[in-house]
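User: Working on a comparison across species. This one is Endonuclease, Uma2 family (Restriction endonuclease fold) from Methylomagnum ishizawai. Can you predict its structure so I can line it up against the others?
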Amino acid sequence: MAAVMNNPPVPAPHYKLTVDDYYRMGEAGIFGLEDRVELIEGEVIEMSPIGCFHAGVGSEIPARLMNQLLGRAIGWVQYPIRLSRYSAPQPDFALLRFRADFYKTALPTAADVLLVVEIADTSVRTDREIKAPLYARHAIPEYWLVDIPARCVEVYAQPEDGVYRQIQKLTAGRLTPIAFPEAALDVAGLFQA
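Assistant: Here's the predicted structure for Endonuclease, Uma2 family (Restriction endonuclease fold) from Methylomagnum ishizawai:
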């Protein structure tokens, strides 16, 4: 007769991929062009598909902001940011410090990021519970979670000790980046078709 073990499972050690490992895998063809993945804390994470409303909002935010910030900041749309040895997320949009080379020689790091934006229709929980803490741990000064189902923007600011100390939900009014308070978006307008 077999004995039944009631002990909790022992977590097996995991190998964490580095950003360099991740890029070598891409160069080797392990990830195809159709694979939507990003590296978070050493793990390759599948990204949610982008629907038409998500894509529209994802086009509107950089178009409206960059129209006001041309030559003062760089709009970074769905490109990687190297946060650490083990994380290179690809946010929907990031506002970066201006650099004359447009980051052609090296990926931006956390120190280059002024604002990061994730747009969520099916990924709200992931963006709130995984991405927000990740960005806070790396002291990204501001994070916007555009919650399409709730028709609101969650604004995270004041990262300290790995958490954002200020969080507010906006359903209307002006939304401005902390770094550029003169550049504004109409929150309600983001959710109009």
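For your comparison, note: Strands lie at 37-40, 43-46, 73-76, 93-97, 113-120, 142-147, 152-160, 163-170, 174-175, 185-186.

User: Helpful, thanks.
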